[in-house]
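thought: fold this chain, then report.
action: predict
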Amino acid sequence: MIIERTYLQLLRKRLEESRRFIQVVIGPRQVGKTTMVNQLLAQSTTGYLFESADAVLNSNQIWLQQLWESARLRKSSSGADEFLLVIDEIQKIDNWSEIIKQQWDRDTQKGINIKVVLLGSSRLLIQKELTESLAGRFEILTMGHWSFFEMEAAFDWKIDQYIYFGGYPGSASLIEDEDRWKSYIRDSLIETSIGRDILMLTRVDKPALLRRLFEVGSMYSGQILSYTKMMGELQDAGNTTTLSHYLDLLSDAGLLGGLEKFAGDVIRIRSSSPKYQVYNTALFSAQSYFRFSEINTNPKEWGRLVESAIGAHLLNYSNTQQYQLCYWREGNSEVDFILVKNGRVIAIEVKSGRRWENKGMTVFNEKFHPERVLLVGTGGIGIEDFLRLNPGSLFD
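observation:
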């Protein structure tokens, strides 16, 4: 079954508008960026040119200029009012933003109606280039990992399968052979993302440390751990600034994030104790020694995985829904997730077992008076129901 992700509707709507901004689609590997654009082009009545920079030498800036000239010639020869130019893996070309700026501004000055879509899997590099060279000329569309609803619709997955195997559609056919599935996630997704989207495109003085940070941080997903304590888990750990920077790189690649502590009117202050959170539970399960049939019967480990699934769901929606995702802890009191948007606060607690104690939520409620307090799991909103929900709707 072919799934049209909701991002397709948004991109189509933007491209139907008058030419104003370059559309930049970013997101981790294997979330369907190229597939979405191909679906868009298949439905388009506009002429287009779609090329990828994946196999182009990174120093070959002239390739971009030639590509743009081809788009101009095709538009001119067709006599159409507009034309669409789509470039995939744009971050592979050195200084690409300067070339894009020159060509875009030339078309603007001459009234040439060529609309542009750029795709890339390295959010950090792309955003850096955009802000330095293309200010005021672009809009970003950030695609997240596949949701439970999408994996259910495409592959008829049950909730337990999604919680364990996560949201990588390309791996769905391998889950009956779990060893093969784990190898695919580790080799084709994790290593490729780290090797090609981080190490080849960004200066990293200690690549082994970055890899080890990902491994350890993923296994601690859903847990709060200070950088100081984390250094005790790593060899050659450097300092907390290095670890913080490497965690940012992993987050920009859509692998592992570090949630900051909520502190009332001071939001997302760089904390010494981030809460580690994978963007996709497959990244946790592929490195775990537990198997699907085993972890499902282990309440403690299953509870951790359920919380990571909820956290990944919230984290993947945080960009498009424009809310900040944090956690809160004070002494022995803790709330799993805090959503903040335009000064509005929503507190979420996750419980997957039979026992339920909510002291942390009570303390948080009395101290900060959030707009909403939600319990997900035992005694509250069902896990499955919550994973079908767009978290942005909680602010409606």
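thought: worth noting. The chain is about 45% helix and 15% strand.
final: tokens above.
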